[in-house]
Amino acid sequence: MDFNFMLQAHRGFAYLILLAIAIFVVALVVTMFGYSGKISKLLRKSTLFTMIFFHTQAVIGLVMLFFFSPGFKAATAAGTLMKDSVSRNAYVEHPFAMIVAAVLLTILNKKFKTNDKLQMSWVIMAVVALALVLWAFQWHRLFA
């Protein structure tokens, strides 16, 4: 495997994650306002698939970062990883925020799987996870 293959896989899963997140948001809003708080099958499935895609994306991204990324290796060797805002965003802030969002999605999946009623704290957790994803998502790289 080479860096370009990993990069294309990472980009491909990014499109799947955007689709899964859109379905998750629709299912969450429908559950909040349409079923008097009862967790629907659609919400459970969308959370599960969003979590699966997110974890796969995280593994691909971390393998790409630590084993294949020439930019990460160059930035750490030169000592500019935290000094340069572009390097810091791409190699520190983006992975960290996405891992935190993946952890929050995993917790949400467990909560939605084991309970029948939606709680406001879970909705807040979902909003925080989505906000992290939207903030750390590399929009300019995906749609450039």
Q: How is the main sheet built?
A: none
Structural class computed from helices and strand pairing = mainly alpha
What is the number of helical segments per DSSP (H or I, 4+ residues)?
6
Low-confidence stretches: none
* Residue share in β-strands: under 5%
What's the end-to-end separation, in Å? 24 Å
Write down the overall geometry: elongated
The percentage helix is over 70%
Which SSEs are present, and which pair or pack?
Elements: H1 3-34, H2 41-68, H3 70-78, H4 85-114, H5 120-136, H6 139-142
Question: Could you walk me through the main structural features you see in this protein, from its secondary elements to its overall organization?
Answer:
By secondary structure, the chain is mainly α. It contains 6 helices and no strands. Helix 2 runs antiparallel to helix 4 and helix 4 packs antiparallel against helix 5. The longest helix is centred in the first third of the chain and has 32 residues. The model has no long low-confidence stretch (mean pLDDT 90).
Any key phrases for this structure?
mainly alpha, 6 helices, 0% strand
Brief description of this entry?
The chain is mainly alpha-helical and 144 residues long.
